[in-house]
Structures are given as structure tokens and as C-alpha cells.
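User: Need the bound-state model for nicotinamide-adenine-dinucleotide:
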Amino acid sequence: MTVHQSKPFESLSIDKARRDAAHFINGEFTQGTTGKSWTNYCPMDNSVIGQVPEGGRAEIDAAVKAAREALDGPWGQMSVVERTNLLAEVADEINRRFNDFLEAECLDTGKPMSMASHIDIPRGAANFKMFTDVAKTVATECFTTPTPDGTGALNYGLRRPRGVIAVISPWNLPLLLMTWKVGPALALGNTVVVKPSEETPLTATLLGEVMQKVGVPKGVYNVVHGFGPDSAGAFLTEHKGVNGITFTGETRTGEAIMRAAAGGIRPVSMELGGKNPALVFADCDMEKAIEGTMRSVFANCGQVCLGTERVYVERPIFDEFVKRLKAGAENLKLGRPDDPTTNLGPLISQEHKQKVLSYYKKAVDEGANVITGGGVPDMGDMNDGAWVEPTIWTGLADDAACVQQEIFGPCCHIRPFDTEEEAIKLANSTDYGLAAAVWTENSSRAHRVASKMDVGICWVNSWFLRDLRTAFGGAKASGIGREGGVHSLEFYTEITNICLKL
Ligand code: NAD
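Assistant: Bound-state model below.
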């Protein structure tokens, strides 16, 4: 993939010029009609970024109507090649405007530009490219056999776009996770109404400019800003003009959305929370296990659904592992997104900071040994930002809240284990089942243990190594369904079986 960066991120700064967001409905930017808006703050220092309009039922109605008309009109009539060529241009245009997306994403989230320039923005573009390839290359042959009773009929399955798709996305990887859904939805012929997270409205808005520039027909991509309950999120998921809902976010929100989807019997795709384990065996490559666990615990300030919050280490290497992870955590540099030496940014918001700090306090109340961190760092002129210290605990009970509940911050609990069976049991002992990491140089053990992880994704000797063609999703309370590559066909298309009597 070519990345057209006009200048390296090292020379960018977090531009404090005011940036307001807008809805993007039927190919036009609008502030809507509710007269309501909220202030968007940069979590780095709590400075004001701009205003965001709050959409109501009228905006959702207009967006769903535009999406339906596009489906029945120009978008629905385009050939796969025309459609996917346009989406490839969307990817190219994101890359051409790489720095605009980078600045917008880092303003909204405070995350390091070094991370967003390697992951968030390139993946935002790649999601369009990859799914255009899927749509173009997916096999269209149909294999059929005569009916068993010999009546002479030919059956074949026709995959059609599902229709108008509601995309509800979170704030931790805003562009990446939104396009992970918008990419396949559009490539497979659907139209979308996106409700981005209220914390991160900018890149979804910017994508509207890209759609306009490359000439994607109006109504194909719509964005309505707002909150969840009694706001744009709930109005969208309740809307009967929506044919399917794809959601990434917290498990509890997923439950509310499933209730809304029950009205009208609309299918859902759910990518939900996690409390992911890492199992570190004594026969691991220690360097790699430490490096991988550092990333899986602290990347994006611990705000990655796939991130590790529970680390189980085989007893002979427990003390050394704890010592080395502590040293790693204490070496992390917290700082501004536009400082290339920054490893860790702030949390997403003051509200989330209070939630994470409440777990820091709870861990102590529950009897944890605080190995490092546990408080708020002194960030000088950024002290109004949503900063917390990278934190490691040991000594918690297996049923402690900090071991069972998703915290979504830069923290983990490390616990020793003695046998493989015990490690497997511990790994599977929460309600969640999103991801796991297994660290061992014994390949038989690797396969054996990985196959017993009750999760959607298990990495062996790595973490967050993604091939976008593979099945992505969670088990248990971490989700329903799989997306990625051809797996996305399941949700974004509907099969009609056609039976032709011969
Ligand atoms: P969240 O559930 O609070 O919000 C996600 C989105 O849902 C936002 O756009 C929000 O406005 C909307 N929303 C909230 N209530 C709603 C309602 N009743 N109806 C309709 N929409 C509603 O999640 P978050 O805090 O933005 O993201 C963090 C969570 O997302 C974590 O739990 C994390 O594990 C999870 N996550 C999961 C994956 C995955 O792939 N499994 C990926 C990233 C994040």
C-alpha cells in the first residue's frame, strides 16, 4: 500500500485551530435541526477542540431515507467494478489527506502520532482496499445437484446486499474500527448510516469530505453525531428502515442494541468488550514475551479491546517476569501526541479517567500489591488532561473485580500458575472471550493450549498481528458473529435461494 504523506508526523503539531464537526447526510454537511450541540475536548490538556451537533430523530430519518434512496438508485445500479473502483479511490484519498486524518484523530484521542500514523490511518485506508478485493474476487460459481427426489429442479444461492446498515462505533480506534465496518458494507453493495462515538467525531466527518471528493453517490455514506440512549444512537438502532446493525463497543451497550434490534427482527454483528489473558510459560522466549506483553497491556494507553489485562506466568519465571514488566512500565514516556518520543498518551476523557482511577483504588481495597503506578502522573501544563500512570498489580484473588471486569486502562494483574491445566482454567474464567496470547517455544503446547482458549482470537508468541482476511470477533460476552475477509459476507449480504423447476 502506498502512503502519500506530505510530511512526516515529526514535523506536525497538534494544531489548536478550532474544529467543529457536522453531520453528513445525503452528500451534504449540515448542523441539523435540533439546535443541540456539545463541546469536544482534547484529552491531552482538556482544551476545547470545537462543537459537535447532536442529531435527533429528524436527522436519523433523513439519513436512513437518503441511504435507502441511494440503494434503490445509483449505488444499487452500479456494477461491482464501478463500485469497488470508487472505494479504492476513497482509500487513495484518505492516504492523500493522511496528515489531516492524523491530526484529527490525535486531537480527538490524544494518542501518539507515532501509533496513529502506523496503525489508525493506514488501516483506515486499507479497510477500503481490502474489502474491494474481497467483493471483486469472491467466488460467484454455484454448485448445485439435482433434487434428491428427482423432481428436476435447480437450486442456486444469490448473495444480495443486506440493505441499509447502521454502524455504531467506539472511540478507541475511531477511523480504523468505523471503516472496518463501512468498508465491507459498501464494497458488498449496502449503504450506511454511521453514528460515531461522541468522544471522537472528527475523522468520521472528514471521511464525508473524501466521499464528496471522489464522487461516491449521495446517501451512500451518512454520518449522524450524537449520544446513545435518547439520542442519535438509540434512534438509529430503533429505526425500522435499518436492515442490520453492526456495533463495536461495550458489552452492556451491545445488550441495549440487541434489544432495539429485536424490534423488526434485524440482525446484529457485535464486537464487544474483553478481559483478555496472556499465558506465559517458563519455556517462552522471555525477551519476546516481555516486549509483546508490554504492547498488549499499554498500547493506546490500554484502550484496545484486544489488550491484555490478566497475565498468568508459570511460577519459575514469575519473579523475573514481574521485575522486567515493572521496569518496562516505568520506562514508558507519557507525553504529547506530536512528540515522536511519546509511548503513551492520555485516556480518552475525564469520565474514563475517573472510571480507571476507581479501579486503581478498588484494586488496593481488594488487597493488591501495587508493583508500579496506581495514581496520576505530574504532566505539568497538561495536568488538566486525562492522564493516569501505567499500573501493575499482583496478589489479587481470582474473583476480584479488577481481575474479572474490563478496566480499559494501562494496567494489568500478574498471577503465577503451576500447571498447564490451571493456566487454561484461569484464562477461561471470566464472562468475556475476545482474545488471548500464549507465550511458549514448545509448538505442541502452543497448539494444545490455543485450542482450549474460549476466545475468538488467540495469538501465539505475538499480539495484534492482524491479517484482515481472517475471522475477527469474540466468544461469550465478547461478541456475536465474525467479520473480516470473506467472513464479512455473512453479515453484509443476504442469501436468497432460487429454486428453478426444470
Ligand atoms: P460504548 O459502548 O460506550 O459506545 C460505543 C458506541 O455506542 C458509541 O458510539 C455510543 O454513543 C454508542 N451507544 C451507547 N449507548 C447506545 C445505545 N443505547 N444505543 C445505540 N448506541 C449507543 O463503548 P466505548 O466506550 O466507545 O468503547 C470501548 C468499549 O468498546 C470497550 O468495552 C472495548 O472493549 C470495546 N471494543 C470492542 C472491540 C471489539 O472488536 N470487540 C473493539 C474496540 C472496542
